[in-house]
Design brief:
Elements: H1 2-21, H2 29-43, H3 47-74, H4 76-83, H5 93-108, H6 113-140, H7 147-150, H8 157-172, H9 179-207, H10 221-240, H11 243-248, H12 252-285, H13 300-320, H14 327-356, H15 365-368
Helix pairs in contact: 1-3, 2-3, 2-5, 2-13, 2-14, 3-4, 3-5, 5-6, 5-8, 6-8, 8-9, 8-10, 9-10, 10-12, 10-13, 13-14
Length: 371
């Protein structure tokens, strides 16, 4: 019996250790994608599916924190190495965005304001730690790669993480009016960060060789970062119409027209990216011959923008009464659902095949852990 127990426990520990050691820093994109699709489903009254994703997301969030905690304790060298890595370091911003997306999920789907507020506080603390920690580590690094090896769509999660704080702050304004000003501040920080980082991403795409395998899910964040900025702007506009905000913030009347214009501008630019992302995806899987049937953990970074574009456009219509745009989220919701189901099925298959048919290292590293 004792020997039997030992044999059964050791492989599990070995697999868990392998997953924790090589965990993709951007894996919290799973929480981001699941959370926003859950909210989109709730808006469109797919309540059973929405609730399922909400509860799954809570489990995924807790599980990723357990694995991350283990990694920090037992593989701190790998963890710190990732923070100093120009290509992988920005993936840590998904921890912030994932925390705040779950906060929104708790508020809208779970109807639990206290937990949403606690998660926002946690998200703000993580934002301060990772935004300043990662950027400082990258700036002070002695070994800096060329732009084509350093910059990718993951860098734009810096924008998403900032705007996620703005989004939740605007949503919580009805309970804590002081959060309205924080929401506006984070909105403009995120907006300006997008301009800076997107310039580098465009430069990399236009003037360096683009290989099929380098076109990963996070490039969808070219659009996703604009979508969450649109959502933040829309929620600020809606919050600004409430009596409490009108009476407490005299700046409200003068700044709102500017936010309308800035939000519409970034929504339009983000929409421009969608055809290119579809074209480059087709090119990757046809001419580039990259199989679409192999699990890529980074594709969660593509599912999130699909869901976010749906929700942000819907809320922007509500904030501005531009009903002509409503046809877009009414269609895009199905695109987001299909994207989530596709990635979830691939995830399950990779996980089950990794457990049932492990290689000598325990798990199929390329399939399950990282690109």
């Amino acid at each position: 019996m004792l020997n039997g127990d030992k044999t059964s426990v050791t492989p599990f520990r070995s697999k868990f250790d392998a997953v924790a050691r090589d965990l993709l820093p951007g894996y919290f994109a799973l929480v981001m994608a699941t959370g926003i699709v859950s909210i989109a489903l709730h808006i469109y009254n797919f309540l059973v599916f929405s609730d399922f994703l909400f509860y799954f997301n809570v489990l995924a969030f807790a599980g990723l924190w357990v694995i991350s905690g283990y990694r920090i304790v037992f593989h701190s060298d790998r963890y710190l190495s990732d923070i100093r890595d120009h290509a992988r370091g920005p993936g840590f911003f998904t921890v912030i965005a994932g925390t705040n997306t779950l906060a929104s999920d708790f508020l809208i789907v779970g109807h639990n304001e206290p937990i949403a507020f606690i998660l926002w506080i946690l998200g703000f603390a993580l934002w301060a730690i990772f935004q300043y920690g990662v950027f400082t580590a990258l700036m002070l690094s002695d070994h800096k790669p060329t732009l084509d090896k350093a910059i990718n769509g993951t860098w734009l999660v810096a924008v998403v993480s900032t705007q996620s704080l703005s989004v939740v702050a605007a949503q919580l304004t009805v309970y804590h009016s002081w959060m309205f000003l924080i929401s506006i501040i984070m909105y403009f920080i995120g907006w300006f960060t997008y301009i800076m980082i997107m310039s580098l991403v465009n430069y990399r795409l236009l003037f360096f060789e683009l290989k099929a395998e380098s076109i990963t899910g996070p490039y969808w964040i070219n659009m996703g970062a604009t979508a969450i900025t649109t959502l933040a702007g829309a929620l600020i506009l809606l919050a600004a119409k409430t009596p409490a905000i009108i009476s407490q913030f005299p700046i409200n009347e003068s700044i709102m027209p500017f936010i309308v214009g800035a939000t519409f501008l970034i929504w339009a630019y983000g929409s421009w990216w969608i055809p290119w992302l579809l074209i480059i995806g087709i090119w990757k899987h046809t001419i580039g011959k990259v199989s679409p049937w192999r699990y890529d953990a980074q594709f969660w970074g593509a599912v999130f923008p699909m869901g976010m574009y749906t929700v942000s456009t819907y809320m922007f219509v509500r904030a501005t009464n531009l009903g002509q745009l409503l046809i877009i989220p009414n269609f895009f919701i199905y695109f987001a659902i299909a994207g989530w189901i596709y990635e979830f099925v691939e995830f399950l298959y990779a996980m089950i095949s990794g457990i049932l048919k492990p290689d000598k290292n325990g798990l199929k590293k390329r399939d399950f852990i990282e690109q």
